[in-house]
Amino acid sequence: MKIYTKTGDDGTTGLFGGTRVPKHHIRIESYGTLDELNSWIGLIRDQQIDNSYKQVLIKIQEKLFTVGALLAVDPEKEKLKSGKDRLNIPKIVTGDLSLLENEIDLMEQQLPPMTHFILPGGHTTVSYCHITRTICRRAERLVSQLNEFEPVDPILLSFINRLSDFLFVLARKLSYDTQAEEIRWIPEKKD
């Protein structure tokens, strides 16, 4: 299989099911941003972090490929003539949300309570995690916008939302693990 097909030379790309859309279509922006998010998660995984985090991040990366694939299906062509789903892959399910929630709970048990907003930074790995969180939020905004025009399975939005929460807590936990200082944001008082 050749990597270049030349079919996108006109500024369009194909969805699963054959529909062609502009490369700037909100659906493409949505799953393209998830691809960017997945790449940043890979960068976090490449850091000197506990292996248990790496294993969870691999699971998350796999789920993000699933979310991207589901978003790459033309909603009008989700089903084959036989009635079966066009994509024969596992869906995102409540257990995927539970994985993120359980990991958040485990990390929070080891962290001091958060009393203020925290400035991103303190350690390169922590900063990577905060950048990844912001990309996750952008992906969430795009998928939410897509949902206004073409309904998206609500669990996909829940998964992306929960993932951004996970990434925030992971950033805090990595700060803790690396003994990086968390700088609280305390607004100056007006005179």
From TrEMBL:
Gene Ontology MF terms in the entry: ATP binding; corrinoid adenosyltransferase activity
Among InterPro entries, the record links this protein to: CblAdoTrfase-like (IPR016030), CblAdoTrfase-like_sf (IPR036451), PduO-typ (IPR029499)
According to its UniProt entry, one GO biological process term is:
cobalamin biosynthetic process
Enzyme Commission numbers on file = 2.5.1.17
Family statement drawn from the similarity comment of this UniProt entry: Belongs to the Cob(I)alamin adenosyltransferase family.
Quaternary structure note: Homotrimer.
Name assigned to this protein: Corrinoid adenosyltransferase
Lineage, please? Bacteria, Pseudomonadati, Bacteroidota, Flavobacteriia, Flavobacteriales
Q: Gene for this protein?
A: yvqK
